[in-house]
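Lab meeting, item 3. Inverse folding demo.
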């Protein structure tokens, strides 16, 4: 895919979820390589603290990525004060754990807003600006979970599948514009997302660092690949998953005890992270049938029953 190169020295980069973990590591690496970095995070004090630690003129802004109006306002403010945004790192996201039937609707909605809709908002707001300038790059951090499935993480995995599929689709819509999208699919990472989950000792050795993910993410600026994994080999591994028979997959999970996300986890260890998820829950009501709508559908069902009886 042809693209317009973006020299990092002097480029403007917006990094969501940049106050900690993968986002912080990416923001720091971009700044070290000469970019002017805007760290966006749910709480502005956290974003400012991260920007201060990064230095190199980094800025910290508060942003709820699921709010499209707020996202648009941040973009407008940054481009007026700092300059056109060349690089967007859609990293913000949340990972609730547990069975779907034990999950609150509000948490599920918040997960889709943070993990998928934020990518959608980002693209709709920034892609037209980048296309007009003939250059730009979206780095969309999804997950290896965006290519497989996992009980206990069903909503999270669904949101990552959506984000991965969206990025691959719009990438091809951008052909010829000079603007590109790359997906970064990390495996388990040493961040608060995995806190409280009872990984075995040998599994923890395979958990990658945020810094290693950052290297892979920033590295996409060189050749603009469609998808990269962290660690290397992740993408090939998740592609191979699709040819594994279900019985063999289930046997393998049982042998290694992989269903720990549906088991009780350490809520104390995960409290800080779960608290940040909680503040993003806007609507926690369980859907109930509207009486008028319910009556309308009862009428439709009755009418259809009569039609089928008449045809018989």
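The presenter then showed the designed sequence:
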């Amino acid at each position: 895919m042809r693209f317009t190169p973006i020299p990092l020295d002097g480029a403007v980069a917006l990094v969501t979820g940049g106050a900690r973990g993968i986002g912080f590591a990416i923001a720091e690496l971009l700044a070290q390589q000469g970019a002017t970095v805007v760290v966006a995070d749910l709480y502005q004090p956290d974003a400012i603290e991260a920007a201060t630690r990064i230095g190199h003129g980094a800025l910290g802004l508060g942003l709820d990525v699921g709010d499209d109006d707020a996202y648009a306002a941040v973009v407008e403010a940054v481009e007026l004060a700092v300059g056109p945004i060349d690089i967007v790192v859609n990293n913000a996201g949340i990972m609730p754990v547990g069975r779907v039937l034990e999950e609150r609707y509000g948490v599920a909605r918040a997960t889709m807003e943070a993990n998928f809709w934020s990518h959608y908002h980002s693209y709709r707001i920034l892609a037209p600006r980048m296309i007009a300038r003939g250059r730009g790059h979206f780095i969309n951090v999804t997950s290896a979970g965006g290519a497989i499935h996992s009980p206990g993480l069903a909503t999270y995995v669904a949101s990552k599948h959506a984000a991965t599929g969206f990025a691959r689709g719009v990438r091809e819509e951008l052909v010829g514009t000079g603007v590109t999208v790359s997906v970064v699919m990390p495996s388990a990472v040493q961040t608060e997302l995995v806190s409280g989950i009872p990984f075995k000792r040998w599994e923890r050795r395979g958990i990658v660092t945020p810094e290693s993910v950052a290297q892979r993410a920033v590295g996409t600026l060189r050749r603009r690949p469609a998808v990269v994994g962290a660690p290397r080999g992740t993408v090939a591994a998740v592609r191979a998953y699709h040819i594994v028979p279900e019985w063999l997959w289930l046997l393998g999970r049982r042998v290694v005890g992989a269903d720990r996300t549906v088991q009780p986890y350490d809520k104390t260890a995960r409290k800080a992270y779960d608290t940040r998820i909680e503040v993003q829950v806007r609507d926690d009501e369980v859907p109930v049938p509207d009486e008028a709508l319910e009556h309308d559908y009862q009428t439709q069902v009755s009418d259809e029953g009569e039609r089928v009886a008449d045809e018989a």
